[in-house]
Design goal:
alpha/beta, Rossmann fold, Pantoate--beta-alanine Ligase, Chain: A,domain 2, 6-stranded parallel beta sheet, 3-stranded antiparallel beta sheet, 10 helices, 37% helix, 20% strand, binds pantoate
């Protein structure tokens, strides 16, 4: 496995790779969710490039950029074990050199849900992912369903900007008790970790109600909200029942595929989760 930092080194390493190339962009501190993306890329592609870059432009000033967990040597060992060919670990100066002033913005679907609570977040994500696509030139790029809106926004960007690649969205990987894997789970103390299972329980409660015939989006949101409220350590930021393509909130009865999603605080730690129901 080749580990490169400079853009020129990356380009040289990319030239040596057998086609097709799969890209797995990450911010490091890898868990089984990331490794499932690598495994999917390994399965589909002749070569796999992973990137590790904690992208400052997708964090707002009050978010956790400086405390974001990092463990490069562990990450590299895991990627090597998974058979990754090249790892690119650019620095902020490489990605955003002095004078940098170019941004990629996807409009409508960046606005609701996470976009409404984290202004500027998706502009940072789409800008860095566009730069990763340009630098690595993959035929396939892998993202997790855990960040459902991110995946939708990136897919839109790839289409709109004619990136010659396919965006593959892989299922959320969960702990045995249902908690979606996330690097931010490491911030939780043992009580919060236990309480955090309420996100998946709330999603499942709404899914069960839907399976039993409940069709009102408002009622599904209420079921999720009420489940979250049973957990004293959980502070709900939002619950949503939205169209899976538009990400617009549904007001009447649901039809077809629907995205149930939420963001919940445990102390200072903000967790998100979602499922798609049909
Ligand atoms: O999902 C992430 O880890 C990040 O948002 C991504 C896609 C690597 C861009 O920084």
């Amino acid at each position: 496995m080749k580990v490169v930092t400079d853009l020129e080194e990356l380009r040289a390493a990319r030239k040596q790779l057998a086609e097709q190339v799969g890209l797995v962009p990450t911010m490091g501190y890898l868990h089984a969710g990331h490794l499932s993306l690598v495994a999917a890329a390994r399965r589909d592609c002749a070569s796999v490039v992973a990137t590790i870059f904690v992208n400052p432009t997708q964090f707002s000033p009050e978010e956790d950029l400086t405390s974001y967990p990092r463990d490069l040597s562990r990450d590299l060992a895991l990627l090597e074990e998974e058979g990754v060919d090249v790892v690119w670990t650019p620095t902020p100066e490489i990605m955003y050199p002095p004078g940098y002033q170019t941004w990629v913005t996807v409009e409508e679907i960046s606005l609701p849900l996470e976009g409404a609570r984290r202004p500027g977040h998706f502009r940072g994500v789409t800008t860095v992912v566009a730069k990763l696509f340009n630098a690595v030139q993959p035929q396939y790029a892998y993202f997790g369903q855990k960040d459902a809106q991110q995946a939708a926004v990136i897919r839109r960007m790839a289409l709109d900007l004619n990136f010659p690649l396919e965006v593959i969205v892989c299922p959320t990987v969960r702990e045995a008790d249902g908690l979606a894997m996330s690097s931010r789970n490491t911030y939780l103390n043992p009580q919060e970790r236990q309480a955090a299972t309420v996100l998946f329980r709330a999603l499942r409660a709404a899914q069960t109600a839907c399976n039993k015939g409940e069709r009102h989006a408002k009622k599904l949101r209420l079921i999720m909200r009420q489940t979250i409220e049973t957990e004293p350590l959980a502070k709900l930021q939002y619950v949503s029942c939205a169209g899976v393509l538009t990400l617009q909130e549904i007001e009447g009865e649901i039809t077809g595929e629907v995205l149930l999603s939420m963001a919940v605080f445990f102390g200072k730690t903000r967790l998100i989760d979602n499922i798609v129901i049909n």
